[in-house]
């Protein structure tokens, strides 16, 4: 593990409890309705665009009077051009079940006159449950060697949701971030596999911003497969975030787990109660970091590092590099044992303007100021 970058982070106060569409408080009596995209003209095989068929099926699902309404994508391959599935819907519980494989168009031409910032998006749908066990393949290769502004940025974007859930999906090769959560209150993300090659630029795993009450659990980001590495942060957390619990994550290769960069605008940003636990980072360029911009709006406080074990590929294994104008305070280091990945080499801690305490075993020796 390699901890580097401006600041570091981890494990905070309080607990995160989220009521989401995943926690199925089943209504045994809920009226149900099911809509299969094949009944709305979808054609499988991967050559014909199905955006309109999917939208028609979505419209039926979303406007259904049933309490629990389900759109089904069967176990086949479907090419889908950039599409937004809009809410609000009538049903309390809206399921988008992907049994098959969704393919993005290979050519950037498909984004002509469309928002290049997204491929598949859900907007303003409450009680949304997007579930697998299917695949979402961004086929991003053709974009990776182009300038960023031509990238469709996100494979799956969930905007302005409440009590929602994303689970059991395999994401592959997005042109940029695989999953973006923005403006949501109460979302659980679990059992995802997200993979893209390490030489793909900016292919973040999951990015969250302006959201609260988020659980990310039991997810593999990067890949266990040899050929596949993730080109950017496994999980990144942007401005205006609170109550996030991230657990049972396997991350790497990639850039690790990042909070920030915060405070780009120079305004005060609130990012609080972020709890990261049971995370394995392997072959990542960083472990866990908090990054901020130079403006003085960002005060990092009450950050705990507990039970951190592993190896670092660089000499500085713990880097608390805080701003002179707004030092980091309330940093806690407890039970940290980091060695060099290279046998016989030593690792060190580096501190600048970092205040707090260390107790229990902490190696390399902490340089934090009381
Ligand atoms: C909705 O219906 C699906 C089956 O179509 C079921 O798996 C799911 O648990 C139901 N959800 C709720 C909240 O009742
Ligand atoms: C379901 O229906 C049964 C029998 O009609 C009723 O007793 C029960 O209260 C209902 N449950 C809910 C959650 O509506
Ligand atoms: C959506 O479905 C409703 C009811 O089934 C229908 O009245 C409406 O025209 C549909 N809208 C679109 C855009 O297809
Ligand atoms: C990107 O790669 C493709 C082949 O993989 C090539 O045809 C194209 O010219 C490259 N574009 C740039 C901007 O390098
Ligand atoms: C992802 O893209 C890379 C590079 O084009 C390719 O080698 C790999 O097979 C793709 N992965 C999948 C699962 O299609
Ligand atoms: C997260 O996943 C683990 C392992 O699958 C499971 O034991 C745990 O209960 C889950 N936690 C939450 C909050 O869902
Ligand atoms: C600390 O941050 C400053 C400013 O970003 C940078 O110049 C310096 O190299 C960093 N030091 C370490 C040890 O990372
Ligand atoms: C590592 O640290 C130990 C104990 O402080 C010291 O004896 C040894 O020479 C150091 N090794 C290197 C390669 O700096």
UniProtKB/TrEMBL annotation:
Main location as per UniProt: secreted
EC number assigned by the record: 3.2.1.15
Class of the enzyme per the UniProt entry, highest EC level: hydrolase
Any one GO molecular function term: polygalacturonase activity
Signal peptide per UniProt: 1-21
UniProt cross-references to InterPro entries, sorted A to Z: Glyco_hydro_28, PbH1, Pectin_lyas_fold, Pectin_lyase_fold/virulence
Record's subcellular location: Secreted, Cell wall
Keywords: Cell wall, Cell wall biogenesis/degradation, Glycosidase, Hydrolase, Secreted, Signal
One Gene Ontology term from the biological process aspect of the record: carbohydrate metabolic process
Keyword Cell wall biogenesis/degradation applies: yes
Family: Belongs to the glycosyl hydrolase 28 family.
Protein name, UniProt field: Putative polygalacturonase
Natural source organism: Rosa chinensis
């Amino acid at each position: 593990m390699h901890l580097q970058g401006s600041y570091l982070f981890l494990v905070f106060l309080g607990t995160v409890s989220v009521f989401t569409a995943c926690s199925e408080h089943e209504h045994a009596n809920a009226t149900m309705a099911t809509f299969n995209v094949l009944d709305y003209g979808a054609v499988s095989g991967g050559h014909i665009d199905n955006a309109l068929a999917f939208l028609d099926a979505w419209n039926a699902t979303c406007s259904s009077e049933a309490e629990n309404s389900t759109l089904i994508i069967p176990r086949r391959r479907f090419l889908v051009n950039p599409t937004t599935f809009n809410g609000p819907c009538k049903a309390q519980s809206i399921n988008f079940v992907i049994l098959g494989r969704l393919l993005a168009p290979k050519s950037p031409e498909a984004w002509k006159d469309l928002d290049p910032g997204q491929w598949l998006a859900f907007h303003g749908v409450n009680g949304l449950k997007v579930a697998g066990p299917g695949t979402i393949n961004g086929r991003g290769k053709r974009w990776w060697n182009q300038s960023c502004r031509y990238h469709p940025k996100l494979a799956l974007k969930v905007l302005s949701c409440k009590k929602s859930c994303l689970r059991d999906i395999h994401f592959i090769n997005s042109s940029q971030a695989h999953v973006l959560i923005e403006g949501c209150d109460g979302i659980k993300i679990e059992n995802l596999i997200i993979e893209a090659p390490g030489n793909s630029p900016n292919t973040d795993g999951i990015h969250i911003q302006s959201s609260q009450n988020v659980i990310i659990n039991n997810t593999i980001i990067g890949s266990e497969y040899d050929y596949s590495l993730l080109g950017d942060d496994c999980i990144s957390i942007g401005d205006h975030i609170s109550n996030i619990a991230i657990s049972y994550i396997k991350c790497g290769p990639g850039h690790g787990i990042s909070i920030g960069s915060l405070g780009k605008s120079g305004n005060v940003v609130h990012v609080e109660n972020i709890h990261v636990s049971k995370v394995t980072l392997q072959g990542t360029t960083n472990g866990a970091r908090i990054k901020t911009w130079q403006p003085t709006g960002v005060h990092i406080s009450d950050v705990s590092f507990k039970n951190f074990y592993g190896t670092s590929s660089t000499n500085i294994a713990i880097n608390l590099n805080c701003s002179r104008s707004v030092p980091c305070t309330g940093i806690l280091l407890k039970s940290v044992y980091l060695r060099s990945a290279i046998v016989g080499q030593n690792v060190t801690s580096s501190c600048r303007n970092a205040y707090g305490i260390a107790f229990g075993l902490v190696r390399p020796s902490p340089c934090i100021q009381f």
